[in-house]
Write a structure and sequence with these properties.
The chain contains ten helices and five strands, in the order H-H-H-H-H-E-E-H-E-E-E-H-H-H-H. 38% of the residues lie in helices and 8% in strands. The protein has a five-stranded mixed β-sheet with strand order 2-1-5-3-4, with helices on both faces. The protein is globular and about 55 Å long. Helix 8 runs parallel beside helix 10. The protein is an alpha+beta fold and 254 residues long.
C-alpha cells in the first residue's frame, strides 16, 4: 500500500503529502482522486499520525523533513504541543466512525488503512483490494460525500466522519438506483472493479445529477477495468442519472 511504501522509502515526503494533500487530479480528471485531510485533522488525530511517522522513520535521515511538512499546516504553539506529545507511546485515541449510518468503535491501530478495517474487522467486503497503491480504484468508498481510496487512507483520518460503502447503498432485494442501473446494463464482467466504479459514480451523481459524458469519463479516470466493460459502465451511469428514484435526477425534476 502507498502508506507503507512511503514509510519504507527514503523520505517521508510521499507519506506526508498523501495524508495532508491527498492525490491531486491528473489528466482530464476535474476532481482530486482523493481529498487531503490537512484541514480536518483534530489535534489528537495529528498527534497520532506524527507519532506513527516518528516510530517508523524517526531513526532515519528521512524523519528530518517530516516535521517541517506537518508544520506547514500546523503552526506556532499548536505544532509545538503536538510534536511534544507525539513522543509518548501511551494513550492511543479511540476511533469511532459513522459507517453506513451506524456508529462503530474501531479496535484496529489508528494507522491501519480503512480498507483493512472494513474488510478484516467489520466484515464488509464491498470495497476490494486491487493494487494497494491508490492506482486502480477498486477500494473506493465515500467519506463525507467525497470518493476516497480506502487502501491509502488511515482509519484515524475518518474518525467521526460519515463513511459509506457499497453495502450502504442498497441490498439485493432493494438495490439503489445506481446499482439497478449497473445490473440493467450488465456492466460487470468479473465484477472486481465494479464496487469502486459504483461508489465514485454515486458521489458524482450526488454532486452533479445530470453529468455530461465528458464529466463521467473524467470522473472515472482513476479507475481500471481489466475486462473492458467501459461502455456498459458509462451507459449504466447515464441510466442512473435518468432514474426518477435518483435524488435530483433529470427525470425526477421534470
Amino acid at each position: 500500500m502507498a502508506f507503507s511504501s512511503a514509510v519504507s522509502g527514503e523520505t517521508a515526503e510521499n507519506l506526508v503529502n498523501i495524508i495532508l494533500h491527498g492525490l491531486p487530479a491528473t489528466g482530464a480528471t476535474p476532481q482530486p482522486i482523493m481529498p487531503g485531510f490537512a484541514d480536518v485533522l483534530s489535534d489528537q488525530q495529528l498527534e497520532e499520525l506524527v507519532r506513527y511517522v516518528r516510530v517508523n522513520i524517526g531513526q532515519r535521515e528521512a524523519w528530518g523533513i517530516a516535521p517541517a511538512s506537518f508544520a506547514l499546516h500546523v503552526s506556532g504553539k499548536r505544532w509545538a504541543t503536538i510534536n511534544q506529545k507525539s513522543h509518548r507511546s501511551e494513550d492511543r485515541i479511540m476511533i469511532t466512525i459513522s459507517l453506513n449510518g451506524a456508529e462503530h468503535t474501531i479496535k484496529s491501530s489508528p494507522e491501519t488503512p480503512l480498507l483493512y478495517v472494513l474488510r478484516d474487522e467489520l466484515g464488509l467486503n464491498g470495497a476490494k483490494y486491487g493494487c494497494g497503491l491508490g492506482q486502480c480504484g477498486a477500494c473506493t468508498v465515500i467519506v463525507d460525500g467525497k470518493a476516497i481510496l480506502s487502501c491509502v487512507t488511515p482509519v484515524m483520518l475518518v474518525a467521526s466522519r460519515s463513511v459509506i460503502t457499497l453495502e450502504g447503498l442498497g441490498a439485493a432485494e432493494n438495490p439503489s438506483a445506481i446499482q439497478r442501473a449497473f445490473i440493467a446494463e450488465q456492466a460487470a464482467q468479473c465484477g472486481y472493479c465494479i464496487s469502486g466504479m459504483i461508489m465514485r459514480a454515486k458521489a458524482l451523481l450526488d454532486r452533479s445529477p445530470s453529468p455530461s459524458d465528458a464529466d463521467i469519463r473524467a470522473e472515472l479516470e482513476p479507475h481500471l477495468c481489466r475486462c473492458g466493460t467501459h461502455m456498459r459502465i458509462l451507459r449504466a451511469i447515464r441510466r442512473a442519472a435518468l432514474d426518477p428514484k435518483t435524488p435530483n435526477s433529470a427525470r425526477a425534476t421534470q
